[in-house]
Every structure is written in C-alpha cells, then in structure tokens.
Fold this sequence. Notes:
Layout: E1 5-11, E2 22-31, E3 34-42, E4 55-61, E5 67-70, E6 86-95, E7 98-106, E8 111-118, E9 124-130, E10 137-141, E11 150-156, E12 159-165, H1 168-172, H2 180-183, E13 188-190, E14 200-203, E15 208-210, E16 213-221, E17 227-234, E18 242-245, H3 256-259, E19 267-275, E20 278-285, E21 289-296, H4 297-305
Amino acid sequence: MTKFQKLGIVMKPLKDQFGSFARFNPGVLLKDGIVHMLYRATNSDIKDNENYISYIGYAKLDTNTNILYDSNERVIYPTLPEEIKGCEDPRIVEFEGSFYIFYTAYDGITARVAIARTEDFVEYKKLGVIKHFTWDKDAFIFPERINGMIAFLHRISPNIQLDYFESFDELLSLNAWADYENKIETSVIMKSENFWENQKIGGSVPPIRTDQGWLLLYHAVDDKFVYRGSVALLDLENPSKVIARIPYPLLEPEEEYELFGDVNNVVFPEGAYIYERELYIYYGAADKYIAVAKIAVDELLSELRNYPVHEHK
C-alpha cells in the first residue's frame, strides 16, 4: 500500500501576530526554484463566530521547505459582500502568463468560489465571485486550455464537477450558470465510492500534468468527519474521464498535529508540485497548522496503474 511520506509541520500560528490562532490550508506553486505559498489565517477562536474571519497571507519557501519570507499580514481579505466572513482555502494556478488564485468567499450563509489574479504575489486583482444556486467550494482550473476551453473543476457537495468555459468572463457570468441545478449531473466526474468518502469528496490540488494523465489529488470525508486524501488520474485530452483512481487514502490523520487542533482529524491538501521526480504535497493539519508530505512520482503513477477505471463517463 502506497503512502505519502510525512515531513512534518512547516508553519504554525504565531502568538500575538497575524494568524495567531491558526495558519492552515495552503495553496502552493513552484516557480524558478521558489515555492510561492498562499495560506489561510485567522486570529480568532472558531467558537466566536462573530469574530472568526479568515484572511489569506503569503510566504516564500525554498525547495527544502524552509520559509524564506512571510508577509505576516493579509494579502487577500474581505472587500466584497460575498466574503465578509472570510477569504478561505486558496489554490494557485499558473495559466497563460498569470497566476490565478481560486479561494472560497464566505458571507456567513453561503460559500462561493472567488477568483483573483496576480503577476508578482504583491498586487492582487479580484476578478469576481461565481454565483449560482448553492454552495460551491474546492475549485480551480487546469493549468492549460483543454480543447481550447478553460476547464473548471469544483465541488458542489457531495460530488466533483468539471465544466468548460471560453473565458473568465463567461465563467463569472450569471448566464453561464443559469439552470445549473438541473444540469449538474452531466458535469459530475467523480462520486464517493469508498466508506472513507461517505460524506463527500472534493478536489484538493490543481491538476498536475504527467505523461500518463492529469494527477488529481482529492480529499474525502467519512461519517465521523475524518478528512483524508487520495489520488485519481484524468485523461489528458478529456479530463472528464477518470482513467485510474486509488481506492484507499494515501494521506490520513495519524500525527498529533493532524489529530488535534481547531478541527480534529483533518488533513486537507491544497497545493503540490513536482521537484526532482518527487511530488511535494502541502496540506492543512487539524485546521491549525501547515504540513508537508512527499511521494516519488514514479511510485504514485505505478500504483495508479493498478487501479484502472474501466467505465468512462
């Protein structure tokens, strides 16, 4: 059975500083030898819902997971009505020359997908919030167009959906999502299949291209609300087709920092990159810390070949 090798905590809350209560759920991107990380941070105990607001901070790390720079302040924060209760869980995708950030906008009632763009991780421009009939989370796009289209993967509970758009303007338009409630089933590419996925599944890390397919790291929640992570492989030319899927978790709460925190029994991957043929996975641990794990890419692809999905959508 293949497992991610855990390397430990890379970031903790800082007392009396930004993210004093929790720093967790990081998106990462490796560029020119630097790991850019956007992380979720809060200064308030979750039990105080009036004050529990999430912000997004920024850090740079080297390829040995050492922190080189930490903003120690918010870089993406609530400015829109849809996000007055928080900007959460960022994912980073390099796409057509810019860095796009997909994060959860929360207004205290509904969670929606918000999109921002940056060229330098200094200035951030918010592009807007996707609105439709219900909660939407765990979203990102593929790092390249698929048959000329932007491929948008997201999670309307309990399944994972994949939809295609010509432009960001279309993705953010109300018309694009008209009557989506009645079309959603045609967009579903993955459903829960195993007991540890009973409650819901969701995309974790923006897809990573390999010669055998798109690696999709995803998370799952069981009936006891334990969060785990596993991996699927999507077809390169038609990623709505799942071509392989490992049926057991490769990452699950075992260490003390994963078992106990603000929300116990949580590992929540959100960012990953390949460096020297190893896949490094950054994840939130117990909604309190940021940890990292790794696995050899060849080992992971070999294990995926053992679990082909024979029926395509």
